[in-house]
Amino acid sequence: MTTSRMSLHGQWSSRLAFILAATGSAVGLGNIWKFPYIAGENGGGAFVLVYLVCIAVIGIPVMMAEIMLGRRGRQSPINTMRTLAMDERASGLWRYMGWLGVVAGFLILSYYSVIAGWALSYIFKTAQGTFTGASTQFVTAQFSSLLSSPVRLVAWHSIFMFMTMVVVARGVQSGLEQAVRYLMPALGVILLTLVGYAVIEGDFMQGVHFLFDPDFSKLNGNAILIAMGHAFFTLSLGMGAMMAYGSYLSAHTSIAKTTFIVAAADTAVALLAGLAIFPLVFAEGLQPDAGPGLIFKTLPIAFGSMPGGEEIGTLFFVLLVFAAWTSAISIIEPVVSYLVEQRGVHRGRAALWSGLAAWVVGLGTVFSFNIGSGVTVLGKTFFDLADYLTSNIMLPLGGFLIAVFAAWIMREQSSIDEFDMGDRFAYRLWFYIVRYFSPLGILIIFLHAIGLL
Ligand code: TRP
Q1: What's the gap in Å between 399 CA and the centre of ligand 1?
Q2: How many whole angstroms from its chain centre is CA 50?
Q3: Of 17, 90, 189, 433, which sits 20 to 30 A from 445 (CA to CA)?
Q4: Which pLDDT value is given to residue 11?
Q5: In this structure, how many other beta carbons lie within 10 angstroms of the beta carbon of residue 252?
Q6: What atom in ligand 1 is closest to the CA of residue 25?
């Protein structure tokens, strides 16, 4: 038996539609832009291993919990948590978990849009043949020149934010489903092509060695925290995005199966991106710890020298923008669905105002790379701070609370009903992992990072 609540905002047309939307949310800049550069900054293999363990032990079980809560509540995350807390006779304070997600969402979207703007601008650079035959120095200089121009960054940031608002205003179901259906496979094909290029032209073995040979001396508490934070970020967990998407899910879809599919696709894309990029990094004598510019400094070199590179490169950045787009709309969906159901705001207006708010905050990130690069708190620029706070603190904290709610506060019968898979071994396994492993894992990693453990 499942609940009879209906979502005000509509439902996914099929199980496949949900898988596509959730994969669209999960696969984004996190996989292709962020994963390689943070793996590079944190020494490679050991970091990647911790990330993979976090996906398995924390990410997948918490994702099941988050989708399950969303489907049971059938409302925006804030109201879902309020309703579920009432159902379970728990404290009304649980709705603040929804609010934590709203704040995290604004911060994430604010810088996400700026980075997606970089990718937008690279579509045109690549298409114009800027990188054809270009040297490493030239490619690096191109990137620095983009970052040094607040005007160009704001322009691209504005365009991307506008694109996001348009889709969110129309409702996430229409349009999005079709887009993801064709673009995700296309992205997979082009990444495989790039890996093929890396095998032929790059230092492939050194790339593999860097990504998969763990050297635990490179791992400190902070690196472990970043790996866990990224597991949340890349799966879109811990702030209500998956909860909102789960609230549009039909009662008969298996949450466990769909979660595995989404997590597997997400992980595959990240590892492929790593395998495409690191062989080039080593072959070109670049530094793996080049930071947020890593893919923008390496891939154009490949596009500049491979046959058909202009076309392949342009297509790559187009697909990267699409991947970012389908992620961005999920970041703001919790806020918009809340404004629609609670305040009776028209969906278009809700999208417009939340997009504008995130756009303004995004200026902080724009200036982090040029005129405001000297403005730091604890040695971090606005961008570094927004990224660190959201990925490494707010999302894991949100995930912790989701796990605690699902496995300690909720009656077991409620989650058994909602998963609709009976009280079998698979359910027990999920239950014990979410009750003990996931929250304890998060807690231990937090304590270790601040030096208390
Ligand atoms: N997962 C996306 C990526 O890897 C980003 C994203 C979308 C996200 N929705 C989210 C991150 C919600 C955190 C929370 O690019």
Answers
A1: 14
A2: 17
A3: 90
A4: 82
A5: 8
A6: 7
Question: What pLDDT, on the 0 to 100 scale, is given for residue 171?
Answer: 77
Contact indicator for 335, 105 with CB cutoff of 8 Å: yes
Ligand 1, residues 29, 32, 51, 108: which to mutate, most atoms within 8 A of Cβ? 108
CA 1–ligand 1 middle distance (angstroms): 32
Nearest to 117 by CA among 170, 47, 177, 164: 164
Residue whose entry in the numeric block shows the structure tokens 């609540």: 5
The pLDDT value given to residue 1: 40
C-alpha of 270 from chain center = 11
The tokens of 382 are what? 């606005």
Burial class (CB in 10 A: 0-12, 13-18, 19+), 73: buried
Q: Say if residue 413's pLDDT is above 80.
A: yes
Q: What are phi and psi of 160, to 5 degrees?
A: -65, -40
The two structure tokens encoding residue 254: 């298996």
Q: Which of 331, 336, 402 to mutate to test the pocket of ligand 1 (most atoms within 8 A of CB)?
A: 331
pTM: 0.96
* Interatomic CA distance for residues 238 and 15, integer angstroms: 22
Matching residue, tokens 């709203």: 102
Distance CA 338, CA 150 (A): 33
pLDDT band at 397 (very low <50, low <70, confident <90, very high): very high
